[in-house]
Amino acid sequence: MSHEEFTDDLLISQDLPFAPSIDTVCVRAGGDPEPGSDALVPATCQATTFAQSVPGLSPRYCYGRTGNPTRDRLEQALAQLEGARFARSFASGLAAVDTLLHTLRAGDHVVASQDLYGGCWRQFTKVWSKFDVRFTFVDATDVTAVAAAITPRTKLLWLETPSNPLLRVTPIAKVCAIARAAGVRTVVDNTFATPLLQRPLELGADIVLHSTTKYIGGHCDVLGGALVTDDPTIAQEVAFLQNALGAVPSPSDCTLLLRGIRTLSLRVERHCASALTIARALEGTPGVEAVWYPGLESHDGHAVAKQQMSAFGGIVTLQLAGGRAAVDAFARASRLWTLAESLGGFKSLLCHPPTMTHASVEQSERERIGITEGTVRLSVGLEDARDLLADLRHALSAASVTRQAEVVR
Ligand SMILES: *Cc1c(COP(=O)(O)O)cnc(C)c1O
Q: Is residue 257 domain-shared with residue 273, that is, in the same domain?
């Protein structure tokens, strides 16, 4: 079998007499005990090359970039999580983005959600535009705007939902149907939702993208990305590019990601429950001008989120009164919330998008989509929600003192 082909010979023996729930899939993902040793946790295969018996036989494994048993286990786990046949893993989320965009050619056009992860926006506008791949950014929550942006040159519709950092919700099934009718492939960046909360392929998307660095890894100690699809043609293209471009994860990265997947459902459950508690508690709190969380009834996308998500995720975004000075005081005063890039890990993190994750997005563009100096993104971790809330209230009062001092001055 060549590396560009796929088989359905999953490493998990498909011997369950019933269809397992996704919680069970998470625990079992990555396969049966290691053949030979029966080790419950398979060894990491670090080999870069594999012995071949006769020249030209195309063995299952020949070279580490092309394929590796540990990476296979991860890819099969990722496919199972999304209920798909094919998955490929990458060295980072942006490596997955880069690989997918290599399916395009000069002159091709992409319609993308406007409030996109900053790194995707940077790659689109600063790298791919040099090679004449063209992008139109739209408010993808507006089905008519998506339809209007599609041209005869459009090859890809790029959705991120819930979006980063404002958690806007795109009606996946509706926009996928529009794209499909126009012969356009749809990719959904499912990083925020995880396969536990949202199933884009079942809603009509062609490809799911993950930064596995976030919830799937979950421990802030491994970078990774994934492309998942049920379409054999797309799978073939991606497999070819994975090997041809070479942005693959190391075997030890794959092992860490497999370990993360085993507890993913448990972690996501806690992230969602705590995020909802915190979002509800902060709504209407003095010093907080807005709370964005798809689980709040006040959120624009709540109805759609309820239809297409099983829970609302672990990210809550706030608009603090008092702008930058208040944000600085808030960040300085918080103890449980670490000021850091990234999200989806065990530890609660606090991020200021305009100076951090979205610093590469031009200010005018940031303002157009609604990211301001007072925007703060919370990645709700696994600590006790009561402690997290107590710490937020403490930090908010520090921000309020700063605000009052500014008024006096
Ligand atoms: C982090 C992130 C990415 C990029 O992934 P890396 O692993 O950092 O390269 C892409 N999309 C979303 C939504 C992200 O949060």
A: no
